[in-house]
Predict the structure.
Amino acid sequence: MHKILIGAPVRQEAAILTEFLRSLRELHRDGLDVDFVFVDDNVEPASSDLLRDFAQHERTTLLPAEDQDDHYEKSEYGHVWTEELFWKVARFKDRILRHALANGHDGVFLIDSDLVLHPHTLQHLVAQGVDIVSEVFWTRWHPGMPDRPQVWLRDQYTMHEQRRDESLPQEEIDRRKQEFFMKLLRPGLHEVGGLGACTLISRRTLQAGVTFEAIGNCGLWGEDRHFCLRAAVHGLRLHADTHYPPLHVYRPSELPKVETFWANERTQGRRVAALQTFRAAMTAFGNTHFATMRGDEGLEHFGASLRTGLMASAADRTALAQRTREVTRTHVVWTTQKDLDDGGMHIGAALVREGSRDGVPFRDDFGALATLRDDGPDGAMRIVDLQFQRLAEAQPVPIVRKTHGNRVLLSMLVKNEAERHLATVLTDAARYVDEVLIVDDGSTDDTVAVCERLLQHVPHTIVRLGTSQFHDEHKLRRLQWELARSLRPDWVLCLDADEVFETRMAREIRALVDQDAYDAIAFRLYDFWDASHYRDDALWCAHRTFRQFLVRVLPTLNDEFRTTAQHCGRWPLAVGRLRAATSDLRLKHLGWAREEDRVRKFERYRQLDPQGAHGSLQQYASILDRTPNLVAFRE
């Protein structure tokens, strides 16, 4: 269960504060353990009374404000902020963040006290699994101006993409702005450069030291900009979610909008449910991998969906089934919705399908039109009709090598690791990776529970296989690779559950990935025979060779693996032909460090490879040597 702290500095008119607190009471909290903290900076006694009344019914901490020697002007024309007010609010927000850290909260939902939230907002934001995310709302900051969002792309409040070396005419600036606005008007999760006012902040962000305190050599206006800059410097990405836009009661004259907001609450929830149904269907339909060796696994899942009401024409299914040895990943780029007079709903979407067909990479675009209804026995949204149209023929895939902002995914295959080194490995890796993929190969112990507990503050995906597939390792490793690619990281770090880097990896990984000269990084692996010594002899000399453990995800990378039951390698064969660099960072392999593990591995190799077809019988026998040559390892 996620422990969430909802916090706000509060100086607010009683009428607006009443609606804010009402929306907090209405928040859905299943699966969440919610506390509240408010900094009471009110000048109206009635507003302070409202906070105290709220605290009588909810677990709430009321923090006193500073001496109120400032003047905060609000009118129908907007809010007037001074430099002193910005940093006063920054101190209030940082107090809330420190309160969350001290009390063991998994996240802080930091919100302004003039917002009215949709009941699903908090659960939805937690489910996104990202470090920093704001729910987008739109505000008319000054009368006569158009509504604008509280998120932006760069600098103070820039709403268009622009490279540092670009000079753009106003016409192109306006076009790019509209492109950004259109993206924010469609339900989705989008990466941005700045945000605030309605933000869920992960514990990992708090532990990294991201605060609202002023950065001395930065002239940007407002505490949220300084928070966002710190987050970016720490490699934390900022996201804007647009599924449940709150109502911003920016001026008292907007209070009549509140009842309209609540009247539309169920309709908005229904629209989001329809989108989630559609996206789930597209994921099942489009994400396939080589595990079947036919490339049609997505269609099998699609067929199961058809049996529960998902339909497409026979011609569409036949055309899409004509795929052999194909790896595809389908991404929903954008969607639009339209309510129908009969109670149904249309969803139109653009899909990007990319992958490789018989080893040749491709990308093509599809349009989809789905009709949904919620007239089933359980009231859930169901797709009752689905049509596809190819928008563009398959295109060659460009290669993009980013020199900053690269996202690193840790990909790990596990089985019955709960009592071994898993906790050590995951705790260490969580310090420096952006996301984690766990493929559980049929564990019968608490391995998955250990992963869920240790990764609760890190975006992660856990895929559980019903039965072990390790007897055919190349298919298992291929599945692991394709699942990692489907998450669209920039780099994949592939470690086993008993491999851990030297502690300086957390400081140096950014330099390894934020460059465009190399596509793979190789390291030396040291086989530990106890807690502080590694084995060094003719048969145990992996540490004398560099091997790739960190690989850039390239669209042109062929997906073929060595087809051997054992020792197939953890990467596709094509990785060996990438431009590679070596690092002096060392990787500690703890899998041999306990005698009981060595005995167990010896027995496993003897059973799986009795003739030494996939390895060395001499090395297998040496596992049980009584006096191996050991060397002390020093960080």
